[in-house]
Design a protein that fits this description.
CATH class of the largest domain: Alpha Beta
Largest sheet: 6 strands, mixed
Oligomer: single chain
Helix content: 40-55%
Radius of gyration: 33 Å
CATH architecture of the largest domain: Alpha-Beta Barrel
Strand content: 5-15%
CATH topology of the largest domain: TIM Barrel
Structural class: alpha/beta
Distance between the termini: 54 Å
Shape: elongated
Number of strands: 6
Length: 309
């Protein structure tokens, strides 16, 4: 007898989504059946394991027609990993030149390992339902969840870990503990490769600020040079002019004469004039401002990197 064609029950499909696969235009396939019964589930009709409403043949035919318009396929549920034929189905999708993102609850690490080792998935989103001490409420062995987290974290594919706060299975207080679980493997990127998003902006900001600092320093060098040349010229050919060679006291007196504080002057203008009389150094400001920007961007860079625990 010829081998049976692979099959999984498909409850339905979104032809196009720009949300379910971040950064990609994709189709979204909903598999029928789930091994959990989360009280907040918004896809209750997908929980029973029963025949699907759409055949795999119809689904593949649609993907072939649409592959010039979409970049990938999201396989979600239900829980896709409970279906033994999932690898063969994904392999068929990959042959069409489409990327595949998997949504999973992480309860089947063996299937995850198979998909990762066979390079059948390009991205994965795993729902972490609750804290380790509460997973028993869902009838799940926490060891399987931890294994899935580790497999995904070391897979080399794009990934994200997410949770739903419902006030029962997961509360606001549980989120911090759930987050610690994701620190047990390298870089929780959440569909961000290293040095993207805040990291890349911080690095570009640091480089731009350093260039700004170096240009300001060079400008100060040449400005000082030409000021000295003009001072020497004035002293040699126009003695007593006191234009470039004026003393600091002479400069201060001239500024004070020009900024006479009238009684009718507004308080804001008076404050500005007093600040002017403090003779702030433009040259120092030109160096300090880019230096402060460098420090600020470095701080942003380090704040966007989460420590491993």
């Amino acid at each position: 007898m010829p081998p049976e064609s692979p099959n999984i029950p498909i409850a339905g499909m979104h032809p196009v989504t720009a949300i379910n696969y971040p950064g990609k235009i994709a189709a979204c396939i909903f598999t029928q059946g789930c091994n959990l019964r989360c009280p907040y589930c918004h896809n209750q009709e997908l929980l029973p394991i029963k025949p699907g409403k759409v055949s795999l043949e119809e689904t593949m035919a649609f993907l072939r027609r649409s592959k010039k318009l979409i970049e990938g396929v999201v396989i979600t549920g239900g829980e896709p990993t409970i279906h033994p034929d999932l690898p063969q189905v994904i392999a068929g999708i990959k042959k069409e030149g489409l990327m595949v993102k998997l949504d999973t609850n992480g309860t089947n690490p063996d299937m995850l390992q198979c998909l990762i080792e066979e390079k059948l998935i390009d991205a994965v989103s795993m729902d972490i339902k609750t804290t380790p001490d509460k997973y028993g409420m869902l009838g799940v062995d926490m060891a399987t969840i931890l294994r899935s987290i580790s497999l995904i974290g070391h897979s080399g594919v794009e990934y994200e870990f997410r949770t739903t706060v419902d006030g029962q299975i997961c509360t606001d207080e549980d989120v911090a503990e759930i987050e610690k679980l994701t620190y047990q493997r390298p870089e929780n990127t959440g569909f961000r490769k290293p040095f993207e998003n805040k990291n890349i902006f911080a690095i570009v900001g640091i480089l731009a600020s350093l260039v700004w600092f170096l240009v300001s320093k060079r400008k100060l060098y040449w400005q000082t040079y030409w000021e000295q040349r003009l001072f020497d010229f004035e002293r040699e050919h126009l003695p007593g002019l006191d234009f470039f060679g004026a003393s600091q006291q002479r400069i201060q007196n001239d500024v004070e004469k020009n900024l006479i504080l009238h009684k009718e002057m507004g308080w804001l203008q008076a404050i500005v004039y007093k600040l002017v009389l403090k003779r702030p150094s433009i040259n120092n400001s030109m160096l300090c401002v880019p230096a402060l920007f460098v420090l600020g961007w470095v701080g942003l860079l380090f704040s966007s990197v989460k420590p491993l625990m």
